[in-house]
Amino acid sequence: MAIIVAFVGQKGGVGKSTLSRALATSATRAGLTVRTADLDPQQATITVWAQARNRQKVSPPIQVERFTSVKQALESAEGEELVVLDTPCAISDEIAEVAAQAVLLVQPTSPTVDDLYPAVLVFHALERLGTPREKLAFALCRTLADEEAADARAYLEGLGFAVLAGDIPERLEYRKAMNQGRAITEADQEDLKARAETMMTDLLARARRPLPTPIRDFDDQRSVTA
Q: What is the pLDDT of residues 91-119, one digit of tens each?
């Protein structure tokens, strides 16, 4: 059975697509078979990125497919070991399907209060649906200083939430890499590459842990309201 990791959140520009690309690339390099689902067909961020990767002949190739629903994406899986779901910038009833099927839901957030507060509300909403806290993890992105990242980590961990190892700083080198069809784990600058790999290594380790509770059926869903 495939390991399903979903990147969720109600705000744009915090790192869902960035981390989706990084996870798919790191897992592929680690020898896993990966299916990457772009669930935001209007923006198609990772689809466009994959096309750039193909044009630039970046190796290994990463296959990205666009889908209009979570159910469609999961039903199309053909024995892959890992399915990466890049969800739209919204919290809707369909996220209940994601929460039911995924072994890990990662919510990227910047360290600002404007992003941290609504991000916590999203995870509280998922918990009200019955999603175990063990399935939820924050990822700190767009950080500008180590102190800022440490303060945000302390805040989230103080609320009892898991936070992935490391953080992803706001750097031009990461943007250049993604513009050329590479992931942040393939940045030219070695220290930035290592920082991204630290987070992806922790993410994969968490995703491979046993499920805390049985997966619910698609029909056993309730409404999501943060």
A: 777 788 888 889 999 999 999 999 999 99
The domain that holds 146 is classified in CATH as: 3.40.50.300
Q: Which of 177, 98, 167, 176 is nearest to 139 (CA)?
A: 167
Tokens 């992003």 sit at which residue? 115
**pLDDT interval class at 124 (50, 70, 90):** very high
The reply to whether 89 falls in a domain is: yes
**SS3 category, 83:** strand
Type of residue at 142: R
Question: Does residue 144 or residue 41 have the better pLDDT?
Answer: 144
Parent domain of 143? 3-207
191 neighbors 155 (Cβ within 8 angstroms): no
Cβ–Cβ < 8 Å for 144, 45: no
Going by their DSSP bridges, the two strands 64-66 and 104-109 should be labelled as: unpaired
Is residue 21, in this structure, part of any structural domain at all?
yes
Q: Which amino acid is at 17?
A: S
- Confidence (pLDDT) at 211: 54
Measure CA 121 to chain center.
18
pLDDT tens digits for 206-223? 998 865 444 444 344 444
Number of domains in the chain: 1
Please, what sign has the CA dihedral across residues 68, 96, 226, 162?
A: negative
Assess whether pLDDT exceeds 80 at residue 47.
yes
